[in-house]
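Can anyone check this?
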Amino acid sequence: MRRGALAALLLLPLLAACGSGGGQHTEAAGSTPHPAASAAPSPSSSGSSPSGSSSVAAQSSEGSSEVSSQGSSLGPKNTVPDDQLTPATGSFTKKEKKYLSGRVPKGTDPAAILQAGQETCDRLAATAKIDRDAVVGAIVAGEIAGAEDAVNGLCPDLKSLVQDAEGGYGDGTHSDPAPGTYRALTPTKDCSWSLDGTSGTKHTITVKKGTRTFTSNGCYAWGRV
């Protein structure tokens, strides 16, 4: 599966949730049901996509899923205090409160931030069943906003996806790459790379100790073998 299909797949869990009330990770176990917020802030996208065509996947998961990671870097002065993290109705579980801690910008409904994280979990779970490499590649490329935080805080059963993405490289130029063997997860037919000026088109590479520069074009993302 290539990246054009990934964008559509990342939307499937969200569409299903709209029709059926949520996916596998929509409510954390033991939580008291609370309504999803009707609106969420729309922070500007952080970072750029490693390739033009792959930006579609980022667009499919931006918005609510980007909201899920916004609060993590705002600091205590700009976030809702933990003792004020309450939904309009019902209550949050301890697990949900831990995820929300330091993550909710002032003036934002905590339920919106929680919903964003849950939707990220739903997207990851559903898409991984169809094309695991595509999901891992998207995490490596930074196109699933808040993926690591959502997995660690709300759906730890998906941790292997984040672990597989660790140490990977997206398209672009990287200095002092870590030695090891890597494979292109969802390469295009134009995938090419160079290691200290030595070029190639194979979808598996070995980075030797002391390599100074690794450049990738059209390969989207590389994962450790």
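Reply from J.R.: I decoded it. Strands lie at 169-175, 180-184, 192-195, 198-200, 204-207, 213-224.
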